[in-house]
User: Fold these one by one.
Assistant:
Number 1:
Amino acid sequence: MADTSPPAKGIVIQPRLLLIGGSVSLFGILIAAAFLWMVPSGASRETKAACRGLKADLPVNGALCPGGQPCALPVRAPDFTAVDHQGKPVKLSDFRGKVVLLNFWASWCGVCKTEKPALGAMAEEMASDDFVVLALASDHNWTDVLGALIEGLAPSFRLPEKLDLGAALKAYSEALPRGIPFKVLLDPPSGDGTIGAITAAWGIKAVPESALIDRDGTIRAYFVNKRDWESPVAKTCLRSVIDE
């Protein structure tokens, strides 16, 4: 008797389709691997391009470089200890794990005061647990520092003619009742000098200058003279290091 049952169905594997599918999968894996390899390079290029737009690719002075000769970035940021407004010692290395924009300035520096509004606006906008702005003042006392902060950040406020520490503190609380969005540290000069001891140890002879330091304590960008810290290129430069 003939078998009239329908033929058994099964999975038919076509070698040609299997070969094509395997090739497509392999191509996808190669593309993914290439992308992962390129991401760090792309991020590095973004950092360099954005910071180069701020003219931050110049050789840094020899005081920051091995051998004492001007060199290219990146270089290690020398640690230091300065004091805050409460007289508390603060180390640069205390901020390890954060990206730091270190701004060297002084109360007697007019350009420094004109830079402060943009620095303050940027620091407030970009405030986070990953980023801090430190302003290291080459000044002998806090009276001069407070007066300069008022002049820079609240220019319409009228300072008293005779300014001592008490009057400066009172004026500061009135002119800037919300405080300021960056940390200020004091770097007193030696004797009758105008450049603070820490600032001078970094090889700086005139202010303002700024260093962008990554989480590991390495200087990634360096800026001589003031910058418009509110500009899109400045924020891109900063974020490119923060987001790494």
Number 2:
Amino acid sequence: MSGHSKWAQIKYKKAASDAKRGKIFSKLSRAITIAAREPGADPKTNSRLAAAVEEARKANMPSDNIERAMKKASSKESAELKEVVYEAYGPGGSAAIITAVTDNSNRTTNEIKHLLSEHGAKLGVEGSAMWAFDKQGRDFTAKFPMVLPEADAKKFEALLEVLDDHDDVQEVYSNAGI
């Protein structure tokens, strides 16, 4: 019967779900901090902040964490955080826009380059992929959506998964339909 403790199983499941939840809260907290820094820390006058707070509430982020992230925007610590946009070309010629919030853009750029190269994608220069998207509200909408063949679609899904797991990556927009 060793190794079959009900409480041990609960502990491992809880640890895994808590780690996943913590990662989500970390990304949401960075998004709130960046949004609060721009026109102000009042969600009534800052629509980007209001949207970030709403997203955090949907993810059941505690109110004190949301407040702490908004206060962090005015602190010295938040001056280190900056938003970075990467443009990339993925499998099958698909275009992608990757937004990240980082305290070290050199580190993040190298990590993103590495992830892209592992999955058959390349980092583009500024403007190389942005032309394929229209900004509508907070999102980028693809001007020229494309459907990827099955082999490229699997590679692209794997790429999206590793990008989503990266701590600094906030959003990934693509013109690829899977």
